[in-house]
Amino acid sequence: MPIIPASLIWAAAMATTTESLPPIDGALLPVGDACYAVPAPEQDKSAGNVLRRVERVDDKRLKITIISRFNGGPLLTSRIDVAFPSLRPIRTIEETDSKTDLSVRYRDGEARGTVTGGDGRRQTSEVPLPGPVWDEETIEFVLTTLPLAEGAHFELPVFHFGRGSGVARIDVRRSISAEGFGGSPIAAWEIEGSTRSDMTITFLVAKADRRLLAVEVGGVRSVLGGDCSRLTR
């Protein structure tokens, strides 16, 4: 009896057919920079900022960049090249203070990743993918391109090289009038998402232009606005 590698058994068990995937319309994703402030406990102060950037590389690719720093800690950067309009990952690079921690390429049904340890040593390995996946770091972008409607539920297969495969469960809870973003209230969707734990992430997405207005997780809220110029110097 032939011996079947465990990695192939795992991939088959987790396999997802393209017919079961929700439609993604990458053309809905706003292109440009968006800065988010994370309020500190002290009034009128910030605990940090998050820059979310979307760039058009060409007619088949977008580049998503997330840069953040909190409480004077390290500068964290993720750069993800994604296919357009599916937003599925092509390449991911994660950095801490401009030093690469992780580099991953997605190709031919597998993810080939190189992890750099604290001692500078690099380790490269391949992981078979269960089918079409989205990079877990891009879910806050991907969900804005779904066919959102009150009560809608979506499940997206996700992958992160350090955490493996998972499923992002996304629920559109209600339609609200969001205030505190300057000017008139904004018609928005309140969306709840979860992946690998019982922790729920709440997103506010503007209906008119699909801007991500706010993200809240574990009682920490990042809100559109603020100054991210120090993150890109």
Largest sheet: 15 strands, mixed
Element pattern in H and E: HEEEEEEEEEHEEEEEE
Strand order of the largest sheet: 8-7-6-5-4-3-2-1-15-14-13-12-11-10-9
Radius of gyration, whole Å? 18 Å
> What is the structural class?
mainly beta
Q: Compute the number of helices.
A: 2
* Percentage of residues in DSSP E strands: over 45%
Oligomer: single chain
CA-based shape: globular
Ordered list of secondary-structure elements with their pairings:
Layout: H1 6-13, E1 32-39, E2 46-58, E3 61-70, E4 76-83, E5 89-96, E6 99-107, E7 110-116, E8 122-128, E9 134-135, H2 139-142, E10 153-160, E11 164-178, E12 186-194, E13 201-206, E14 212-217, E15 220-224
Describe what this molecule looks like in 3D:
5% of the residues lie in helices and 52% in strands. It is mainly β and 233 residues long. It has one domain. It has a 15-stranded mixed sheet with strand order 8-7-6-5-4-3-2-1-15-14-13-12-11-10-9. Strand 1 and strand 2 form a beta hairpin. The model is unreliable at 1-16 (pLDDT under 50).
Entry summary:
The chain is mainly β. Helices cover 5% and strands 52% of the residues.
Which short descriptors sum up this protein?
globular, 2 helices, 233 residues, 15-stranded mixed beta sheet, disordered N terminus, mainly beta, single chain
